[in-house]
Amino acid sequence: MSNLVIMPLLVPLVTAVLLIFFHKRLRAQRILGAVSALINIAVALGLVLHVRGNGIATLQLGGWAPPQGIVFVADMFAALLVLTTAIVGACCLFFAFFTIGEPRERHYFYPFFHFLLVGVIGSFLTGDIFNLFVCFEVMLIASYALIVLGGTKRQLRESIKYLLINIVSSALFVTAVAYLYGTLGTLNMADLSMRVAEAGQDGLLTLLSVLLLLVFGLKAGLLLFFWLPGSYSAPPPAVAAVFAGLLTKVGVYAIIRVFTLIFYHDQAVTHVLIGVLAAITMSAGVIGAIAYRDVHRILIYNIVAAVGFMAFGLAVASREALEGATFYLLHDMLVKALLFLLGGALIAGAGTSRLAEMGGLIRRFPLLGWLLLVAALALVGVPPTSGFVGKLLIVQGGLAEGWYWITGISLASSLLMLYSMMKLFMAAFWGEEPLHRPPSASRVPTGVYWPIGALTVLVLALGVGAQWAMPYVAMAADALTDPQIYIDAVMKE
Amino acid sequence: MEVLLCIAAGMLFTVGTYLILAKSLLRIALGTSLISHGVHLLLLTMAGVKRGAPPLLGEEAQAYTDPLPQALILTSIVISFGVTSFFFVLAYRAYKELGTDDMEQLRGQGDE
Amino acid sequence: MKTNDVILQSAAKLVVFVILTFSAYLFLSGHHEPGGGFIGGLMSAAALVLLALAYDLDTIRSVLPVNYRIVTATGLLLAILTGAGSFLFDRPFLSHAFDYFTLPLLGKTELATAVLFDLGVYLAVVGVTMTIILSIGEDR
């Protein structure tokens, strides 16, 4: 028992509630939010170190033992994701201080932001499927509010679609939960894993796992990403960055968790299916990223492509590939948030999101340009950056397990990702400035460089210090490859 | 009893799906709430409709009803209540702001 | 058009108190019998909605000058802090405790920390429901 497990969730939760009391005093809200975000990074770091020292930490809420009670589990995989979430959340929050604007702040922007973090962190830490659903919903409801906050026409239009897609997928999620409970009689993930292993994964259970894959695939944008470009381009950059960095990754986390812990028996069906979906997602993502000449769209289709990459790592399911997927997931959360913050600053500076109307911005924003270049290289996985290690491991794993086709597709899509980012960089920063600068072009507040800089440093440090980060990732992969470790940790007390 | 409940859940799903595919926002919102009712009914049915005493201390009974599905359904109902009411407010705001409740016209331009 | 709702208004005046009393009963009985903060909160909110239906929102606001968002936040905070109170005794989050006390008038009574949590739920439910209904209702 360790109450530390639930602390990363409680800190933003208490903050969110307290912020409601201060909703008229914006300055107090900012200070409180910033302090809480920093505290949460420390708490999450403490959790990672605790898990490193003592193995998987569990907390039985109210002292009720699983499988009846609710249990929160922090294995290394979850703990690392929580830490990354806390970091990304803090950076986006600091970015929001400079860009979000007073009307949104007054309409409970900060409380919703912290509620979103609660949902995301809860999804990572929870040990049973139903609480996963509840945490998903906390996250989604906060995201509905964040996406529509401000109420421009475009936001209203896009949030209706976002809301509808998510309501349907939540309904399917509860359906899957109902079937799971009907067939297996439990919802605790460790217990589910034990019972599936005992009863054997027959056709019915495989079908159920595919239903869950569908639900999580909708959230993650695995194949079912058609809702993503519209809804992620509507909200302001700080919100879009949180969405890009965290929301889809929660779906990816859920897919990885379910298919490594519970439904890992029938890999010929499920994992091949995931592999095929991953290949289609990667291809479609990069095609979108190449085709559009719009900053939002290019970045958003790069999210889609990256989701395919992680799913490919899971599909291979060898130890190496899972290490790669974990590493890539951590990297992707950081770099996607970074790219969206940069993209937001770029669009604010240029006054438009269309590449055709940009050009020569390197004169006005030299720092922004070079940071964007670094982030683009990191996204693609050029060696000293953090993307390289993850991709290398996934590709090595894929080749070792004989997934030649999809490995080929993933390498090709990496190249095309590079092309799409270079296209963005060159069109925006090189060349001549357009004759008529769009009237909405403005200065970029210098404060935004702090969170952007912090994320860039982290992305580089994760790449250069991969040697140092690897033991943690390896420990996460241990529990992913051997479900017994997870089960023992949950059921021991 | 289970069969009846299954049929009812299936009908709710059918009607809900039909409504979601409609053009008008109001129908879509109603469709989503019907689907979530169907889901809750399904959850109740899948967990088994048992006849037993309430699972409380002091009830000396042979059989107890499983309390877990009820807790799940209650949670799920609360969530869908919140989401549905949010959807209605959003649909109303969108209708006032955009002047239409036709999904065809809410499609958005391809170039933005 | 002005409608005549004398019957509704005079009935509401009486019925609201009956509903509120019943909701308090439901809330308190929740520890051992069906009931609890959630249902009690919904019932109280129903009483307030009935008032809002019988009169109009401005009247309700002048009679009950409550910011329901703050009510929600208070409820959530109370629930979380009750849960976190178990940290002080080195117990898992949300552990609860109870004991029997002899109180004046009531005699031997069971007091449980779960009631505090439930009170938080009650406030949160009243706050959320009223926020939703008022924000839908006031815009026309």
| Strand composition percent of chain B | under 5%
Tally of DSSP β-strands of chain A: 2
- Number of helical segments of chain B? 3
First and last CA, distance of chain B? 52 Å
Q: What are the low-pLDDT stretches of chain A, counting only 5+ consecutive residues below 50?
A: none
Family (chain A): Belongs to the CPA3 antiporters (TC 2.A.63) subunit D family.
Subcellular location (chain A): Cell membrane; Membrane
Pfam families (chain A): Proton_antipo_M
Keywords (chain A): Antiport, Cell membrane, Membrane, Transmembrane, Transmembrane helix, Transport
Structure summarized in a few sentences:
Chain B: Belongs to the CPA3 antiporters (TC 2.A.63) subunit C family. The complex is a heterotrimer of chains A (493), B (112) and C (140). Chain B is mainly α and 112 residues long.
Description:
The complex is a heterotrimer of chains A (493), B (112) and C (140). Chain A has 21 helices and two strands. With 493 residues, chain A is an all-alpha fold. The longest helix of chain A is centred in the middle third of the chain and has 32 residues, at 153-184. In chain B, helix 1 (2-20) runs antiparallel to helix 2 (25-46). Helix content of chain B is 65%, strand content 0%. With 112 residues, chain B is mainly α. Chain B has a single domain, classed as Helix Hairpins, CATH 1.10.287. Chain C is mostly helical and 140 residues long. Chain C has one domain (6-137). Chain C has helices spanning 6-29, 37-54, 57-63, 68-84, 113-137; strands at 98-103, 107-112. Chain C has a two-stranded antiparallel ribbon with strand order 1-2. In chain C, strand 1 (98-103) and strand 2 form a beta hairpin. In chain C, helix 2 (37-54) packs parallel to helix 5 (113-137) and helix 4 (68-84) packs antiparallel against helix 5 (113-137). The mean pLDDT of chain C is 86. Classes of the chains: A mainly alpha (493), B mainly alpha (112), C mainly alpha (140). Chains in contact: A-B, A-C, B-C. The interface between A and B is large, with 35 and 36 residues.
